Amino acid sequence: SDSSALIADPTLAEMGKNLKEAVKMLEDSQTRTEEENGKKLVSGDIPGPLQGSGQDMVSILQLVQNLMHGDEDEEPQSPRNKVIGLGHSLGAYISTLDKEKLRKLTTRILSDTTLWLCRIFRYENGCAYFHEEEREGLAKICRLAIHSRYEDFVVDGFNVLYNKKPVIYLSAAARPGLGQYLCNQLGLPFPCLCRVPCNTMFGSQHQMDVAFLEKLIKDDIERGRLPLLLVANAGTAAVGHTDKIGRLKELCEQYGIWLHVEGVNLATLALGYVSSSVLAAAKCDSMTMTPGPWLGLPAVPAVTLYKHDDPALTLVAGLTSNKPTDKLRALPLWLSLQYLGLDGFVERIKHACQLVSRSVWSLMLLGDMRLPFFQVEDELSSPVVVFRFFQELPGSDPVFKAVPVPNMTPSAVGRERHSCDALNRWLGEQLKQLVPAGGLTVMDLEAEGTCLRFSPLMTAAVLGTRGEDVDQLVACIESKLPVLCCTLQLREEFKQEVEATAGLLYVDDPNWPGIGVVRYEHANDDKSSLKSDPEGEKIHAGLLKKLNELESDLTFKIGPEYKSMKSCLYVGMASDDVDAAELVETIVATAREIEENSRLLENMTEVVRKGIQEAQVELQKASEERLLEEGVLRQIPVVGSVLNWFSPVQALQKGRTFNLTAGSLESTEPIYVYKAQGAGVTLPPTPSGSRTKQRLPGQKPFKRSLRGSDALSETSSVSHIEDLEKVERLSGGLEQITLEASSTEGHPGAPSPQHTDQTEAFQKGVPHPEDDHPQVEGPESLR
Question: Which residue stretches does the UniProt record annotate as biased composition, category Basic and acidic residues (predicted)?
Answer without folding.
Answer: 26-39, 720-729, 767-783
